[in-house]
Amino acid sequence: MPALEVAVGKKFDEIPAAQRPTLGLVLGGFSANAFLSELWQIYIPHYDQPRSAIQARAQPSIGTNWSAMFEPIRRHVKGYDQALVPPFRAARQS
Taking the CB of residue 12, how many other CB atoms lie within 10 A of it? Predict the structure, then answer.
């Protein structure tokens, strides 16, 4: 909290709720007697009431949900970072 208070210039209690940091959780799994999984999103402190989570992917939907920064995911999937590859240059002809 001290770093946030210094960055904003206010005590934590004085920072509007919409400007406070949020902790996001993505929960996936199978409900009882379910053949396919479900995906839920919870943002703390915004979804602080029971049953206030958002169902991001319901049965029978199957697919991929991307969250956060894409570059680390791309590096993991492709095995390299495109930003580190020098641009292709055609060979000079003499």
Answer: 12
